[in-house]
Amino acid sequence: VASILVLSGCIFIIMVFRESLPEEARRKALSNRREEENNWGRVILRPIRELSILNRNKFFRLLAVVSVCSGMTHSSDSTLIVYYMKNQLDIGYQSIATMFFFKSLVGVL
Hints:
By secondary structure, this protein is mainly α. It contains five helices and no strands. It has helices spanning about 1-15, 25-40, 40-50, 60-85, 95-109. The N and C termini lie close together (about 10 Å).
């Protein structure tokens, strides 16, 4: 279901939305990309350069830190609940797997 939704969204974007860059800016961006493809050092360092947007001001730095902390908390909660359910409540792995299946199904919807 999720794959069909993503695929239909991609098709919609390709069909409906036009190129937003002016012709001259698009040519310049394409030539810069071709130059970067020949230089592997630039290809490897490009994601780091693009992440520099997070260091623009205090708001973006705070937003990045909060996002990382939120992800770590969610990840640790999911891990700890498995151990708690198994050791303290004596729930089987099949029930835990079913719980995570329905959790991910609801997350997709």
